[in-house]
Amino acid sequence: MDDHTLILTHAFTCRVTCGEVFEIGAGPLGERRCYTMTGGRIDGDRLSGDLVGPGSDWMVTEPDGLMRMDVRLLLRTDDGALVAIRYFGPAESSDAMRRALAANQPTGFADQAIRTHWLLETGDPRHAWVNRTVFVGKGRVCPAGPETMGFEHRVYRVE
Predict the structure, then answer these.
(1) What CATH topology corresponds to 8-158?
(2) pLDDT digits (tens, 9 = 90+) for 50-82
(3) Which residues of 59-82 are buried (b: 16+ CB within 10 A; e: fewer)?
């Protein structure tokens, strides 16, 4: 009998700082907002560095309240490689999450359901392993400073 158990191994933690939010409005898929990502950091055993350049989340909130993230980021690793990052997935808000966002306070990972699938891409041979790795994550509200919205994601390799 084959063992079909998936193993999740922590790959990195990503902290993202949010900037201006653009309210695009109702469209055919739901309410569209664009959250700018102004910085952050990734820290892991095999991958660490700073988020640089443009970044944004083109989030859609569906009529039933389910949010769908579509985030693009750029990582400059501590050894100078550039890694393009895309993560997406559903986010289910909660009263705890709404209170935390209003008060600029952190939540626990269990206080809301933020689940993500991560795609990483680089041309740098030192980090080519990310091109063929499946990553999944969970997120929480984690302010980046006074009056500065932020999020923390724990990201895992699927083995």
Answers:
(1) Porin (2.40.160)
(2) 999 889 999 999 998 899 999 999 999 999 999
(3) bbbeeeeebbbebbbbbebeeebb
